Amino acid sequence: MIEGKKVVVVMPAYKAEQTLKQTYKNIPHDIVDDCILVDDASDDRTVELAKNLGVLTFAHAHNLGYGANQKTCYREALKLGADIVIMLHPDYQYEPKLVTPMAAMLASGVYDVALGSRIIGGSPLKGGMPLYKYIFNRILTFTQNILLGAKLSEYHTGYRAFSSKVLENLPLLANSDDFVFDNQILTQAIVFGYHIGEISCPTKYFPEASSISFLRSLKYGIGVLQTSISYRLWKWRIINSRIYEKSGTYRLTPDYYEEHPVEQAEFRQN
Length: 270
What we know:
Shape: globular
Strand order of the largest sheet: 7-5-6-4-1-2-3-8
CATH class: Alpha Beta
Order of helices and strands: EHEHEHEHEHEHHEHHE
Largest sheet: 8 strands, mixed
């Protein structure tokens, strides 16, 4: 715990066999209460290794997508009574030791969401980020800051921390099951008025780390623009959008677990 807050690290995994052990080893277990790994139907030894490490492990029977993986991660973390949930990719691309300052930002009560930014404090190109991804990152971030009226250094980091109230109140179930989920949840946090803080996080790109292709990156970029434009149209009351609904229909609340028990049958606990 930190400041009396229960901290849970969640790891959405897909073929993370080669990097999981190193990632898990560097997690600051002195302040982390539980670690959860959700495997999205990998065909390697990710699940077996996670179990051997003592990680609470869930496995999708079929590949459901990165966004669907996060939904499972957050659902299971909230069921454990987490106050702070930190998403850490098990591919060792982000520094696990930064879990402590990210958790502290939320435990202080100053922020509701914390992001590990690859842009603050140096160039991610030095860490191996492909040039086209860096260019996409800067263009999309600039565009989103204008459309959303925010001032984030980037929207596309996979290193995030959320307070439980954020995960319970945002309509996460309305979001995509694909990569654009990452962008939708940040847009929702801005819409709902939550405070977002950022810290510097070094970038590490290497062959064993997961990375999406150029075409998937392009699809993600189009999804980001669609999310931002839909927000602006929703803000102007031109359209309705269920990802900004403030009703409880799409929330990961305790009521959801009670009303949708069959959903748990889609996953098998290991």
